[in-house]
Design brief:
Strand content: 15-25%
Strand order of the largest sheet: 2-1-15
Number of strands: 15
Radius of gyration: 21 Å
Shape: globular
Mean pLDDT: 95
Low-confidence stretches: none
CATH architecture of one domain: 5-stranded Propeller
Distance between the termini: 43 Å
């Protein structure tokens, strides 16, 4: 029986160490801006402005906290000793690449935080969470522990929420979270179809795979998550991403496709077997027809899709149709801008386009969709979560003042070794957990 439910978006607050270290091979934007000077304050305020704009439109908007960075405990595990200041100085001198990695603010992209299955899809009718192991990149592989703590602090009622540990941190079970997962349904409270998109088969060397850039998500990881979440066959589809798209810089499926409700917005080169994917989705989707909005290479070349992050947009339900929330870069590339103008007038499900300025995030390779984790919640589940993380006018004002008080407006790679930066981060995060009512989730607090 269907229950009333909404799709809540939980955005990651950009952390105080937001910087451009170019850590993500396969992410064109990340590599192209390496060593540029970043503005953590502006980045955080841009993210908050995006959240506020959507909250003002009536969408349920939550906040996920940044992580503790630089993460000195990781440096200690790698052999650096002494006081915190001595650890930072030694790492900067002997292994600056490690200091950059443990200072990354990449947890801001909460589309990678976890995979979430709504209670309408799961066997025990609870919302299931599995933090992503993010094993493809060292700087991200250290995130899942604190991500898991934060999710448990927010969704703590075990009567409604089930939490799983991250998958084993090995290449065969590489898992990138909801960036390779989307859900289609007639209504949010109805059983839906969860689309798991993978880049390679870990235990089948003969299967197609990219040759230039790594495929970060494996079929084996996607299948394991579906099992842990108790998804039935009718509630899941596994689809392989087109290896050519990965080699063009489409490191996650959400750079080439986005879905919501009964609408799938995708590029023609998104999937290895487009026809089979659509057929599987249509066969399993109940109570509604699939609206497949296909973008051709003729209209938007793949390189323009990657450069603009057209598909790394948020697709949102609205009273008069779907809203596509795009990054400003979509209006700077002629083919994409022309396509968007034609899209809203073609009589399809997407009826409006709204532009968001998330340039600080985009320069590091993440658009509007990267910044949010979608969680479908019934009314009872909403009442059971920690409401301190739900964005209100008051919380927005408190978080804005918090950012203004604690964030620098300029950060370079050399600044990462500054022990004062670590002190600033600890002070800021200690205050933030109080604001959000999360308790002690960081290593320095435990």
């Amino acid at each position: 029986m269907s229950q009333h439910a909404v799709e809540a978006n939980f955005d990651g607050l950009v952390g105080p160490t937001h910087n451009y270290a170019g850590l993500s091979w396969g992410n064109v934007a990340s590599k192209s801006n390496v060593n540029a000077v970043s503005n953590p304050r502006e980045a955080a305020l841009q993210g908050l402005a995006k959240m506020k704009r959507l909250a003002d439109r009536g969408y349920v908007q939550g906040v996920l906290p940044p992580h503790e960075r630089p993460h000195v405990p990781t440096l200690r595990r790698l052999g650096f000793t002494g006081s915190d200041a001595e650890v930072l100085a030694s790492a900067a001198r002997k292994a600056p690449e490690l200091l950059a990695a443990v200072s990354s603010a990449s947890a801001m992209w909460t589309a990678n935080a976890a995979t979430v299955s709504p209670s309408a899809d799961t066997a025990d009718h609870r919302v299931h969470f599995t933090p992503a192991n993010l094993g493809a990149k060292f700087h991200r592989s250290i995130e899942h522990v604190v991500t898991g703590r934060a999710l448990k602090a927010i969704f703590s009622d075990e009567g409604y929420f089930a939490h799983h540990p991250a998958l084993p941190p090995v290449a065969q079970f590489g898992d990138e979270g909801a960036a390779n997962h989307t859900r289609l349904c007639a209504g949010y409270g109805d059983p839906g179809v969860e689309l798991f998109v993978y880049g390679r088969c870990a235990f089948n060397d003969a299967a197609p795979a990219p040759t230039r850039y790594p495929a970060r998500q494996t079929l084996e990881a996607s299948r394991a998550i579906a099992r842990m979440h108790g998804l039935r066959d009718r509630n899941r589809v596994f689809a392989q991403q087109n290896p050519a798209a990965i080699d063009a810089g489409v490191f996650h499926n959400d750079v080439i496709a986005v879905g919501n409700g009964n609408t799938l917005f995708y590029h023609e080169l998104a999937f290895l077997d487009e026809a089979a994917v659509l057929a599987d989705l249509r066969a399993r989707l109940t109570g509604t027809d699939l609206h497949a909005v296909r973008v051709s290479s003729e209209d938007v070349p793949l390189e323009d899709a990657v450069a603009s992050y057209l598909f790394n947009s948020q697709l949102l339900n609205a009273p008069d149709g779907m809203v596509l929330a795009v990054p400003g870069e979509c209006r700077e590339i002629a083919s994409v801008s022309r396509y968007l103008d034609a899209l809203v007038g073609d009589g399809g499900p997407i009826t409006s386009v709204e532009v968001f300025d998330v340039k600080q995030s985009m320069r590091n390779g993440g658009g509007p969709a990267c910044l949010r984790l979608r969680v479908v919640l019934t009314d009872d589940e909403r009442a059971a979560l920690n409401s301190g993380v739900i964005l209100t006018d008051s919380l927005y004002e408190r978080l804005t003042a918090w950012v203004e008080a604690h964030y620098r407006d300029e950060l370079t790679q050399d600044d990462l070794a500054d022990p004062m930066l670590l002190d600033e981060v600890h002070k800021a995060l200690d205050e933030l957990t109080g604001i959000l009512g999360l308790g002690s989730i960081y290593d320095f607090q435990l």
